[in-house]
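Ticket #4471: structure output looks truncated?

Reporter: J.K.
Steps to reproduce: submitted the chain below (190 residues) through the standard prediction queue, then opened the result file.
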Amino acid sequence: MSMPRGSPAPPGRQSVQVVSDGKDDPSARGSSDVSIDISNESGIEADNVALVRLASFALDQLRIHPLAELSILLVDEDTMSAYHEKYLGEPGPTDVLSFPMDELRPPADGEEPPVGLLGDIVLCPAVTERQAQEQQRSPSEEAEYLLVHGLLHLLGYDHATPEDHAEMFGLTDKIVSAWAQQRTDRPRGS
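Returned output as attached by the reporter:
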C-alpha cells in the first residue's frame, strides 16, 4: 500500500546498510550496485540477505538506476498498526506499506534510468506469516512477494482500478517467478 506523496518515512530505526553487487552470490544476477538499508525490528527472524538480493534483482529487472537507494524495514504488528492508522486511516496491521521519496519510475525503452531515492518499504512478518498459508506460499515466499509488491508501489504502480490491478499483480508475479527460477540458494516452497 503506497503512502500519500510527501508522507515522511517511518521514524526511529537503526539500519545496517547493505550494498548488493551480486558478486558474492551467483543467484544475485544483475548489474545493480543499489544501496539497500534493511532493518529488522519485528522480533521475528527473517532472511535479510535474501530480501536484499531480491530487491536488487527486481530493481535490475525494472531497469532502475544502479545508484538508486532503497530502505526496507521489518516491524511488529503494533508498529505496523500505528503506521497503517496514521498514514492511511485504517485500523489494525497490514502486510506492507510503501513510502515513496523521489517518485522514480521505470524508464521507457530508450530512456536512461533516473537516479534518486526510491523510498521505504515497511513489512510486517507476523502478518506475512499468517497470510502465507492463505496464499499457499511459505512465509519467505510471501515476504518476497510483498517486497516486490511494495517496490512496485514505490515506482508508482497501484491497484485501484481493475486495469491497474492486473498490471501491478502481473508484474509482481513475473518478477517473483523470474527470481525463483534463477535462484540457486533455496528450492521453491521453502
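Triage note (M.O.): checked the attachment and the full C-alpha cell line is present. The CA atoms of residues 36 and 70 lie 5 Å apart.
Status: closed, working as intended.
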